[in-house]
Amino acid sequence: MDQNTVFVHAKWQVKEGKLDAVLQLMKEAGEKSIQEKGNLFYKLHQSQQDQNTIILYEGYADASAVEAHRNSEHFKSIVLEQVVPLLENREVILMNKLF
Questions:
Q1: Domain extents for the chain?
Q2: Which pLDDT belongs to residue 2?
Q3: pLDDT at position 99
Q4: Averaged pLDDT in 10-residue chunks for the chain of 99 residues
Q5: C-alpha closest to that of 67 among 35, 39, 87
Q6: C-beta of residue 78 within 8 angstroms of C-beta of residue 25
Q7: What is the model's pLDDT at position 1?
Q8: Quick count: other Cβ atoms within 10 Å of Cβ 50?
Q9: Which helix (H) or strand (E) holds 93?
């Protein structure tokens, strides 16, 4: 990984009773995302304190790979159209590695 690598940290608060649906959709989204040319990894985590808090940690070769991911059909149809309505809150941070 070089200085152009972009990391994505997304913290999602899932609406009560919607966790199973979100996890099922994200399994499909993750499988498709890791097949993208510029994707380095796509990992989904769950808080130990609150099962409805989901953290995504993703790595992309560069900013254009992030843009390609955000413009992909699976991101739009699964994440934006189906998952986002099941969330109470969504925070996304794009990061560069310092050292």
A1: 6-95
A2: 73
A3: 84
A4: 89 98 98 97 98 98 97 97 98 94
A5: 39
A6: yes
A7: 63
A8: 10
A9: strand 87-95
Structural tokens at position 63:
């900013």
Pairing of strands 39-46, 87-95: unpaired
Q: For the residues of 26-66, what is the DSSP string, one character each?
A: HHHHHHHHTTSTTEEEEEEEE-SS-TTEEEEEEEESSHHHH
What per-residue confidence (pLDDT) applies to 14? 98
Phi then psi for residue 96, to 5 deg, are -115, 145
Tell me the sheet residues that pair with 41: 59
Sorted by sequence, the CB contacts under 8 Å of residue 47 that are 6+ apart come out as 53, 54, 55
CATH of domain 6-95: 3.30.70.100
Q: Write down how long the chain is.
A: 99
How far apart CA 59 and CA 43 sit, in angstroms, is 9
Tokens found for residue 93: 């941070």
Q: What residue type is 59 in one-letter code?
A: G
Token readout for 58 is 């993703």
